[in-house]
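Example record for the data management plan.
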Amino acid sequence: MLGGRKMEFIFIRHGHGEHLNDYPNRLNTLHPSLTEYGKFQVTQLRNEIKIDSDDLVLVSPTKRTIETATIIKKGMDFIISPLVGPRMFPQNPELPFLACDHILSKTEISNLYGDTEILDFNADCWKEGINKIEQDIFEGYARRLLDWIGKSYKKIFIISHDGTITNYRILLGEEGLTRKDFLGEAGVHRMKLSG
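Corresponding structural encoding:
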């Protein structure tokens, strides 16, 4: 899957978002941004994270993750991908689809962030994102993304959401993870892998 290369995944959870003010009453806020506190958290994190120009930075298509990436990257390019968008963990089809987990459309991304690169492999995953899709479909999308990464990058930053990060950590080989393993706001988790 990773092409036999040594690589490091650095997962970063977005900073404090507007939907977390008055939790859980604001979880149905559509497209929440970072709060001022969230921006402060990410600015502090920026001083601890070193991103080189040849590193890959993949970002979930939500305002709070794109704002997190913009602060961390200091104007450098990143790629937006629905394949690292919000994903529930653990999966529970009984739970409602919260407005805060709706992703921006390609048109909204273009209108808000100009010509930022988008990576989706022409997959049909924009309408509802990867939040509640069946596990085997998610794993197919994720493996395709990991195969693509394995050909070109040694250091990969993924700026995303707690459930998504946990799903990818499991897919990359970690075992026994639960919601207790979620990263805090602006949290970082590093995984070094050799294929």
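Summary line stored alongside the record: Residues 135-150 form the longest helix (16 residues).
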